[in-house]
Request: fold
Amino acid sequence: QQANIGVTGLAVMGRNLARNLARHGYTVAVHNRTGARTRALVEEFGGEGAFVPAGSAAEFVASLERPRRVVVMVKAGAPTDAVVEEFASLLEPGDILVDGGNAHFLDTRRREAALRERGLHFVGAGISGGEEGALHGPSIMPGGSAESWASLRPLLESIAARVDGVPCTTHIGPDGAGHFVKMVHNGIEYADMQLIAESYDLLRNAGGLGPAELAEVFRTWNTGRLDSYLVEITADILAYSDPGTGRPFVDVVLDQAEQKGTGRWTVQTALDLGAPVNGIAEAVFARSTSGHAVLRKAARDLPGPPRTPVADPAGFADKVEQALYASKIVAYAQGFDEIAAGSAEYGWDIDLGATAAIWRGGCIIRAEFLDRIRAAYASDPKTPTLLTTPDFAEALAGAQEAWRDVVATAVRQGIPVPGFAAALAYYDSLRARRLPAALVQAQRDYFGAHTYHRTDKEGTFHTLWAESPRKEVPIGTPP
Ligand code: NDP
Reply:
């Protein structure tokens, strides 16, 4: 029997993706470098659908209907290059090779260009939702050619998560667009997690609430506008006690957050694109800070202010909810701004509203909130920022007093809130009629003759700072 699609790389992600496809009625060829994994999959889950196990890459490729569709789910980096090359050499023009791993979008662009030369379609597909998502319905962000999307679409739509009957997958754009969007998704995820963690820290250390009370607070928030997977699991974690010690679980976990790289890539890429994602950057740096045992040990006895619990914990919790919501709007606005910048730079023509729509289910940042973003772009697809779209502008206006109050409380009590503070600084920077950048530019002209523009006339100018009297000279011709 010819298989409709093949999956090579059968660790947790590949195995679950293959099972998901088989459960939806597709015949799935399965292959793994180490054959034991292939055999284990068929032994354990063979009853779930039609699998065609292959012992070798050649056997695997021969079992596929044409044009062949091969999904590679192996370790990102050099292993992906090796596996892509191995299979590309066995495929024929018109065949489709999908990389579902967490590749850097620039690697995907390189691989896509190389395979296009050989007549093959290379699809860099971001897949979010972890192993559970891969099995029960992930959010899938494929890049690549329109032809490859036409061929993959029915399969991806049937295995993806669904919200209101709409599958959480869409064609993101050419070459690296899918992996770019997955990268920014993860950057936003970092920010969202950091903001939730800051809320917890404030409510615990300034609000005086214990983990069990906090679980209730997050559970309540999860019934409102903050309704999301991340808030839901936060409530669950805070309610959980360590079975061994009986202590709150959150108190026995070492306070060092690790990272695998997609958050860092989001920030590195944003720097290259000139996209100001300070909220996301602070979330990545907060993880680095937490993991920097040497710095933290050296500085642990530096003085801070005395901590006095707030007078009205319930009222404070309400303010923190507002600060969290406002900061979350900023973090997502920054992520979408980066996607818009990447789309412009690489000519991808990414539909921002459609991107928000496919994040409503399956992925880690899934939330009701994303439907508001979808709606905001639906009514104003060209908006330069989500902050000024009516729904979010109103929410920010309503929250800003509490947001400022919460940041001020944190500062006074010596509780670090890099995410909240960065988001607020971004909001105030965009609002400002005049930024002190005027002074920075004047400094640049003073020490480096970097020139400046004036508010009152066209052209480029330089002041001869060393001369007496100082004189302004026009540089070049005004546009
Ligand atoms: P791993 O990233 O742990 O990769 C293990 C798989 O890669 C095994 O099948 C292994 O084969 C194969 N492999 C490694 N090196 C080679 C090589 N040189 N040649 C051939 N095969 C090789 O597996 P995961 O399932 O966790 O992840 C797969 C991909 O999905 C990764 O790119 C990951 O970043 C991405 N991803 C993972 C998520 C998760 O929650 N885990 C979520 C979203 C994406 P063997 O058995 O022979 O060692």
In short: Residues 160 and 352 are 19 Å apart (CA to CA). The radius of gyration is 26 Å.
